[in-house]
TrEMBL record:
<keyword id="KW-0375">Hydrogen ion transport</keyword>
<keyword id="KW-0066">ATP synthesis</keyword>
<comment type="subunit">
    <text>F-type ATPases have 2 components, F(1) - the catalytic core - and F(0) - the membrane proton channel. F(1) has five subunits: alpha(3), beta(3), gamma(1), delta(1), epsilon(1). F(0) has four main subunits: a(1), b(2) and c(10-14). The alpha and beta chains form an alternating ring which encloses part of the gamma chain. F(1) is attached to F(0) by a central stalk formed by the gamma and epsilon chains, while a peripheral stalk is formed by the delta and b chains.</text>
</comment>
<keyword id="KW-0138">CF(0)</keyword>
<feature type="coiled-coil region">
    <location>
        <begin position="47"/>
        <end position="122"/>
    </location>
</feature>
<dbReference type="InterPro" id="IPR002146">
    <property type="entry name" value="ATP_synth_b/b'su_bac/chlpt"/>
</dbReference>
<dbReference type="GO" id="GO:0046961">
    <property type="term" value="F:proton-transporting ATPase activity, rotational mechanism"/>
</dbReference>
<feature type="transmembrane region" description="Helical">
    <location>
        <begin position="6"/>
        <end position="29"/>
    </location>
</feature>
<dbReference type="InterPro" id="IPR005864">
    <property type="entry name" value="ATP_synth_F0_bsu_bac"/>
</dbReference>
<keyword id="KW-1133">Transmembrane helix</keyword>
<keyword id="KW-1003">Cell membrane</keyword>
<dbReference type="GO" id="GO:0012505">
    <property type="term" value="C:endomembrane system"/>
</dbReference>
<dbReference type="GO" id="GO:0046933">
    <property type="term" value="F:proton-transporting ATP synthase activity, rotational mechanism"/>
</dbReference>
<keyword id="KW-0175">Coiled coil</keyword>
<comment type="function">
    <text>Component of the F(0) channel, it forms part of the peripheral stalk, linking F(1) to F(0). The b'-subunit is a diverged and duplicated form of b found in plants and photosynthetic bacteria.</text>
</comment>
<dbReference type="InterPro" id="IPR028987">
    <property type="entry name" value="ATP_synth_B-like_membr_sf"/>
</dbReference>
<comment type="subunit">
    <text>F-type ATPases have 2 components, F(1) - the catalytic core - and F(0) - the membrane proton channel. F(1) has five subunits: alpha(3), beta(3), gamma(1), delta(1), epsilon(1). F(0) has three main subunits: a(1), b(2) and c(10-14). The alpha and beta chains form an alternating ring which encloses part of the gamma chain. F(1) is attached to F(0) by a central stalk formed by the gamma and epsilon chains, while a peripheral stalk is formed by the delta and b chains.</text>
</comment>
C-alpha cells in the first residue's frame, strides 16, 4: 500500500462524508436548532410580555385600591356629616320641644296663679265681710252689697 494512495482515499472518503453530512444530515440539525432557538426566543418574549402585563395589572390593582380607599373615606366622611346633621337636627327639635313645654308650663303656671289669686280674693272678700260684720255687729247682706263686694275684689 502506498501512503499517498491511502491518504488520497481518506481525503476522498472524507469529502464524500462531508458532502453527505452537509446535504442530508446538517440541514435537519440546523432546522431543529433554529426551531429550538425560535421557541426559546418566543418563550422569552412571552415571559417578558407576561412580566409587563403583570406589572400593568399590579399598577391597575394599586390604582383601584387607592380609588376604593378614597371612595370609602369619602363615604365615611359623608356618613359622619349626615350623622352630625341628624344629631344637630335632633338637638334643635329637642330644644324647640323643650321651649314649647316650658312655655306651656309657664302658661299653665300663670293660669294657676290667676286662679289662685281669684280664690284668694274671694276668701279675702269673705273675710273682710265677716270682719266688717263683726265690727258692725250685724249681718251684711251679700246680695244687697254685691256691687261693693265686686269693687272690693277688684281692688285686692
Amino acid at each position: 500500500m502506498n501512503l499517498n494512495a491511502t491518504l488520497f482515499a481518506q481525503i476522498v472518503v472524507f469529502g464524500i462524508l462531508w458532502w453527505f453530512t452537509m446535504t442530508f444530515v446538517w440541514p435537519p440539525i440546523t432546522k431543529a436548532l433554529d426551531e429550538r432557538a425560535k421557541k426559546v426566543a418566543d418563550g422569552l418574549a412571552a415571559a417578558d410580555k407576561a412580566k409587563l402585563e403583570l406589572a400593568t395589572a399590579n399598577k391597575r390593582v394599586e390604582e383601584q385600591l387607592v380609588q376604593s380607599r378614597n371612595e370609602n373615606a369619602k363615604l365615611l366622611a359623608d356618613a359622619e356629616k349626615r350623622a352630625q346633621a341628624i344629631v344637630d337636627e335632633a338637638k334643635k327639635r329637642a330644644e324647640e320641644e323643650g321651649s314649647k313645654i316650658v312655655a306651656a308650663a309657664k302658661a299653665e303656671a300663670d293660669q294657676q296663679s290667676i286662679q289662685a289669686r281669684e280664690v284668694l280674693r274671694e276668701q279675702v272678700a269673705a273675710l273682710a265681710v265677716k270682719g266688717a260684720e263683726q265690727i258692725l255687729k250685724r249681718e251684711v247682706n251679700a246680695g244687697v252689697h254685691a256691687e261693693l263686694l265686686t269693687r272690693l275684689k277688684t281692688e285686692l
